[in-house]
Design a protein that fits this description.
By secondary structure, this protein is mainly beta. It has one domain: Beta-galactosidase, Chain A, domain 5 (Distorted Sandwich), CATH 2.70.98. Helix content is about 5%, strand content about 40%. It has 4 helices and 28 strands. The chain has helices at about 65-70, 305-310, 315, 375-380; strands spanning about 5-10, 10-20, 25, 35, 75, 100-110, 110-120, 125-135, 140-150, 150-155, 155-160, 160-165, 170-175, 180-185, 205, 210, 220, 225, 230-240, 245-250, 255-260, 270-275, 290-300, 325, 330-340, 350-355, 360-365, 370-375. The strands form 6 sheets. A 9-stranded antiparallel sheet has the order 6-7-8-9-25-21-20-13-18. Strands 5, 11, 12, 14, 15, 19, 22 and 23 form an 8-stranded antiparallel sheet that branches. Strand 20 and strand 21 (about 255-260) form a beta hairpin. The longest helix has 5 residues, at about 65-70.
Length: about 375
């Protein structure tokens, strides 16, 4: 088989995956999926972020994940992982987001294009197979990660980062039903270490538009960018009765929406990393702005595996924060995100519903709807 070629894209050796509508690049280092262009024959929508230091000299001691930081990547384990777990010391967001992947193949057949990459993990020995698929006429990037030859508890998930236009409230953020919303248990950033946060630690909320802040009022997380100069983390727990869960952002002026779908039984939590210039230390230097990580995970916030594996309020309430891996039975996690054009004055998305086996419909709060080709089998049946 011919070895897929590698090209330098925004400072990183990467493999290219494309069809007539979408072009995407996967970095060798860390397996970060980005940049990504949707509607590449038309308006060329690029909704995902790329860290602004991609052409700069690497800061000494900076982990590969920060050097590469872009688009979406798979975390296993998810989080900082400063605390060892049963003798394992994982890097931030795991080897899957830091180590070098190998590309097994890029294949085109039956109207779809699939890139297959593989990583053999060393800290907890095993294998992860990444498959990224583009389906003709679908404005969607479908992904699966299959973990094999590995046992034990593991937290994991996707770390998608959406770049918002530099205007207050340029994007309207929405999700499917959630049963709990909570701010991270402590300030995400602290002035002592050159960082600032704005939300009240551990505060609970049941609506994105009313979240407690440090100064005693509330703020609206459903409209972003906001709170320039601050860095915050919140977590939403999906309603487990949903057949699929979703997150979405509408950009009314740009006339498009970004959306992501998942199986809430596998990835019960959504972590919002609200990054708007609140980190003043290198390489961030207050310039990582207007980015929201919309991270679909099975985890207890973002400290890491040790905190997700032990008893915590989420798993005590029946919401898993780790997945039990079996060395003899591979585990596959499906996930997909896409972009669609929307009509004028299309607002916050209120519902995403299945319209047919090959389609979904996005419905805003005014009842306006947009139909999108989407194969839900790829979320609900990862063997597809």
């Amino acid at each position: 088989m011919k070895t897929p070629s590698v090209r330098n894209v925004l400072g990183q050796p990467s493999w290219r995956l494309a069809n007539s509508a979408i072009e995407a690049f996967l970095t060798v280092q860390g397996g970060h999926l980005g940049p990504i262009t949707f509607d590449r024959q038309g308006s060329k929508i690029q909704p995902m972020s790329v860290a602004p230091w991609y052409r700069e000299k690497k800061v000494p001691g900076m982990p590969p994940i920060i050097d590469v930081l872009r688009g979406d990547f798979f975390c296993m384990p998810f989080g900082g992982n400063d605390t060892p777990y049963r003798g394992e010391q994982h890097p931030v967001h795991g080897e899957t987001a830091n180590a070098k992947w190998t590309c097994q193949s890029i294949q085109k057949s039956d109207g779809q294009t699939t890139l297959h990459a593989r990583l053999k993990t060393k800290i907890r020995r095993g294998q992860v197979d990444k498959r990224i698929t583009l389906v003709d006429a679908h404005p969607v990037v479908y992904q699966t990660h299959t973990i094999s030859k590995m046992a034990g508890r593991m937290n994991m998930g996707h770390h998608a980062m959406v770049q918002f236009p530099d205007r207050p409230g340029s994007g309207l953020v929405a999700t499917s039903r959630f049963v709990q919303g909570q701010v991270f248990l402590q300030r995400e950033e602290n002035p002592i270490t050159d960082g600032y946060s704005s939300l009240k630690p551990a505060a609970e909320f049941d609506s994105l538009d009313s979240v407690p802040t440090l100064i005693g009022d509330t703020t609206d997380l459903s409209r972003y960018p906001a709170r320039r100069g601050y860095e915050d983390i919140v977590m939403l727990t999906a309603d487990p009765s949903l057949t699929f869960a979703w997150s979405a952002v509408t950009f009314p002026k740009e006339r498009y929406a970004w959306f992501a779908l998942k199986d809430p039984a596998l990835l019960p939590q959504t972590v919002f990393w609200i990054s708007n210039g609140g980190r003043h230390h290198a390489p961030w230097n207050s310039r990582h702005t207007n980015v929201m990580g919309i991270e679909e995970v099975c985890a207890y916030f973002h400290p890491g595996l040790a905190q997700s594996a032990k008893a915590n309020p989420q798993n005590k309430a029946g919401h898993p924060t780790t997945i039990q891996l079996n060395a003899k039975k591979p585990t596959t996690l499906p996930y997909a995100f896409g972009v669609t054009r929307v009509p004028a004055r299309f607002g916050h998305i209120q519902r995403i519903e299945q319209e047919s086996p090959e389609g979904i419909v996005l419905i805003d709060t005014q009842g306006k709807s947009v139909r999108v080709p989407f194969d839900l089998n790829r979320i609900q049946n990862p063997s597809v």
